[in-house]
Design goal:
The complex is a heterodimer of chains A (about 300) and B (about 200). By secondary structure, chain A is α+β, with helices and mostly antiparallel strands. Chain A has helices at about 5-20, 180-195, 215-220, 235-240, 260-265; strands at about 25, 35-40, 45, 55-60, 65-75, 80-85, 105-110, 115-125, 130, 135, 140-145, 155, 165-170, 175-180, 200, 205-210, 225-230, 250, 255, 275-280, 285-290, 295. Classes of the chains: A alpha+beta (about 300), B alpha+beta (about 200). The interface between A and B is medium-sized, with 26 and 26 residues.
Amino acid sequence: MANVLVELSNAMVAATEKAGASTVLVNARRRMSASGVVYAADLVLTADHVVEQEEGITVTLSDGSMLGAKLAGRDPGSDLALLRLERPAGKPAEIAPEPKIGQLVLALGRPSTEGIEASLGVVSAVGGPVRTPRGMLDRYIRTDTTPYPGFSGGPLVDSEGRVAGLNTSGFGYGAALTIPAGLAWSVAAQLEKNGSVQRGYLGIRSQSVEISAAAQKALKREQAAGLVIIGVENESPAEAGGMMVGDILVGIEAHPIQDHDELFARLAGDAVGKSIAVEILRGGKQETLKVKVGVRP
Amino acid sequence: MNLTAMFENALDDLMKRIRGMLVVVNNEHQGAGAGVLAGDGLVLTNNHVAGDGHALEVTLDDGGPYKAKVIKRKVDADLALLQISDHGHAGAIFSTQEPRPGEMVFAYGHPWGQRNVLTGGVLSAVTTARTRRGELTILRSDVQLAPGNSGGPLLNAAGEVLGLNAMILGGDQSVAIPASVIREFLAEAHKNMPRSKAAEDVL
């Protein structure tokens, strides 16, 4: 290797060019253009908060061609919107595995027709779920890249030019967050199908508790924690299914539930409208209730 | 050798190569900025660092201070060329490559008066700034600049000068004047310069 700095620099340019080919300019509000990522040849994923109009949306691809676009769906909770191009002309992005803390990343954007823009950083944190001003984000990535104006909707890119997530400053907190690619792509698939994302709802308030050794014996498995029900909403799916304050929720559809993250995960996606098996501990005994999952208001 | 050690060695080499090109430019009224040696006793800096041109002094990494006078300015690009009496130092290499977004860059200067500080980042964008006299191509980077970086070089990974840092143009953004504009400015300066002493001797 001639000069490791030059090699690394060239590798970062190559990553920028590769992911830049799938990074587009999105014009869907009056003030400031934003960015987007090509999800499929005719679909562009962007940040929901940059789409302020449904008429006259345009998208400029990396080759400079400008296309009309229509809103195909939006999910304010995760700040994602899907746009359908007037014809399939985009180059879909390649997605990366979930990045690790400390990993080198580039934030890209195309806020103007002057070309791709980049900033460098590392992954500072990966976490979630986190409450957002308009809902819930199941998972997030935080980086120390510079969120330039117009970067919302643009990709966070790994050293190989693959998309690790979508950057947005739409959640406030005075900082930008990144929606992980795995989550963003699954939201995009639901937006493509339904135009919106439905999230499951039981109507309980709960908190994590330890499960005693005796109760674990009743469960016939080792499980250190569950969720004790501290409130049941009136006329909720949980009430209809017979869930009561004091029950300890320990499983859903044969998957152990130990904390809120696991519960959210089980209620996401296609759980809405289905009757699911909810495993509880009541008075130290294991019981299974049938609960029909509602839609989170 | 592992990659981190290779990286550190490469940074060491880079520092050795660029060390001599950076100077301190002192201006009686506005304090200190940075500058880059451009050969033949020429020093390139920002116009706002040169100020009104009175009582200018240039300190090299290994000598000085020297009295300096302004021989050319390009106000809209915030460039100034100074002349000092010491002709013995080689000039920096000004990159002829197209700047590429995503490439590694280093700012070399004296942020907050601290001498010879290297800060890193990437080239963010090649963009256009509007000035009173028209449009000017500028480089934006995510390198943190501070007062004292003005007039110092923005370097690529090979240690060539990609631009001259001039944070005054961009407000809170790190902005540099690209090497292409600098090379044009130097060429104009050379055209109007009296023939050097050495050349006269040959005649």
